[in-house]
Amino acid sequence: ERKTPGEGWCIFFKLFGIVEFNISKCDPLELVFLYEFVCDQIRRGLFPDDKVSLTELAGLRCQYLYGDYSPDKSYAVSDIYKVTLPTEVKYTSTRKNTGTLRGLGTLGKGTIRKLKDLYTDTEREDELLMQEEIEKTKNTINDYWKTKSGLSKGAAQQELLKVTTRWLAFGYGIFDVLIIDNRFRETELWLAVGRNDIAIYPRQKSLPLEVHTYDSIISFGAPQVNVFKITIEGHAPLEMSTPEFLDIARLMKTYIGIMVKMKKEKR
Q1: Cβ burial 4-40 (10 Å sphere, 16+ → b, else e)
Q2: Which residues contact residue 55 at a Cβ distance below 8 angstroms, ignoring those fewer than 6 apart?
Q3: How far is it, in rounded angstroms, from Cα 31 to Cα 23?
Q4: Which of 42, 67, 121, 255 lies at a 20 to 30 A Cα distance from 18?
């Protein structure tokens, strides 16, 4: 990647799967890869925690990337943190739109234009609300970043990892999935794929709904495009909708291959 003309090129490697989750056993290069892996999950909203804790992790990320806070140091919030509108803001916006629709009356002359204007206004309102939320989030990140002044790059890295390693699914590949059956109260969940098992998590929550070791998995694959199915011994199959079905299958296959290899080496 080259940011601007004339700058040198930078090569980025993305970690696909993690075998060693114990950061004390990682050499410095492995630690950098692991750190970037976790920061990428936080950036994409795939790490469970409350907003306060996540913005603090973003502040630590800023200290790692840019050093001590300074007003002239600019960055895009989307590079380190996924901003979403609070539920109450979304709800208020939806209620406004519903009320407006009631006044449109039956379809007739000018109704399509009214609908078009309505959705244009809604999009504009959503953009403004999002910009406000981004600005508010950035101020919160910066406030915490300021408290870390003087913290070295290595210390900022260690502090972030110390917090994130508390999660049971630390180091797992996390995927947004839509469960097809009604076995869970919610359908929009996370599938966590790790070295020894897979787990189903509520999104943004730290405790799993189900955990299954690879020894209990009979088969897995994509019966059709954007659908992934895992057949588990003694349980109903897990069937989910996800555009990342190939990445999930590849990661599970990789971990199972490593597990088989390690078992053979122990014999």
Answers
A1: eeeeeeeeeeebebbeebebeebeeeebeebbebbbe
A2: 81, 137, 140, 141, 144
A3: 7
A4: 67
